[in-house]
Amino acid sequence: MSEQKLNEVKITQIRKYFKKNDLFLELILSNYELFNIYIRIDYLKKLDCYRLSWFDLDIININNIDRYLSIEYISKLNIEDIKSICKDIEITNNQEEIDNSNLVSLYINTSIKNNNKLNISFNQFIPVKLGLLSDIFIIIFANMPKKLESFLYELHASLRGEVSKYKMGNKINFNINKDNLENIFTKDIIDIGNVIILKNQVKYLEYIYGRYYALVEDNKKEVVIIDDDNNIIQMKCSCNKSICPHMYAVIKSIRNNQYHKFCKVSLKKNNESLINKILDLNYFLCVGYNENNLEIINNVGEIMETSIVGFNKEVSWVVVEDDEKNTLTKLLMKFEK
Questions:
Q1: Which residue range is the domain that position 215 belongs to?
Q2: Does the predicted TM-score (pTM) go above 0.90?
């Protein structure tokens, strides 16, 4: 059974689980940056309140739904705000074509401007012509765990003019381990990429849930991300070129099995165990440090500096996974003193 079909089965079972509740809102993120998230808001008659529930479809076992249920009660004011926003939304039948990649499906059981229920699907970004949906997503994610906040930023990219930050390269039919690299890369790019390999400038390379992450230290630090979905790849590099020597060097390193895991850090205020942080991807890839800052990879594949110590003068980060010398652990211990 394909992943898409399996998720459809899981959603059907979740709907059956909630069949006694009155569904107000349903939001599904399908294959969204390789994640599959199901969110719903129900009205509970007995308690006269609304409850937001969400599931990570990638880990849920439909035979034990209770175990994977995360809930948050949501105020009636939030619900009234959503209803008010919907009254000004008008959706016509001439919607853009969509596919199954980064698919967002939203249903709200309240009337929109043309008296229909709000029921819409789109790919990755909120359409500019439906900018009013923005506030609805803000309300939803304000009641979700902070670790899902990056999805909210990405959903709003078209409204902020930042689509290019989130777009991976064109889809290429390519077996990353076997196909001829000359089908993608020019001789000049291959020559430069081989120099990068010889100089051992691919410092980190790790495969995490269907995606390769790498750090290449050329003239400066560059982050390369490669999606690999059944011999269909998409590539992105922080140097902003569609095809570059950094990508070539990373693919060669993959073929040479030259993996080197990233150090990983998480915000200290999160009380999850370290193993749960790893399983839930509730961490950031760390590529270095300088003076009082860590260098981490943000949700758009860029390196950003973040302060080790917060406003309360305490260390803000905990090490989830360190190198063999425990470099980050020792560094943070110095700031603890």
A1: 172-255
A2: no
Q: How many CB atoms lie within 10 A of CB 222?
A: 25
C-alpha span between 261 and 207 (Å, rounded) = 9
Kindly state whether residues 246 and 122 are assigned to the same domain: no
Sequence-ordered strand ranges (E) for 230-332: 232-237, 263-267, 284-290, 293-297, 303-307, 317-321
Residue 34 binned pLDDT confidence (cut-offs 50, 70, 90): confident
Do 9 and 157 reside in the same domain of the chain?
Answer: yes
Measured in degrees and rounded to the nearest 5, phi and psi for residue 276 equal -70, -35
Structural domains in the chain (count):
3
63-104: per-residue pLDDT in tens? 888 888 999 999 999 999 999 999 999 887 655 677 777 899
Instruction: Give the span between the Cα atoms of 59 and 147, in whole angstroms.
Output: 16
Q: What span, in angstroms and rounded, lies between the C-alpha atoms of 32 and 53?
A: 18
DSSP string for 62-81 = TT-GGGG-EEEEE-HHHHHH
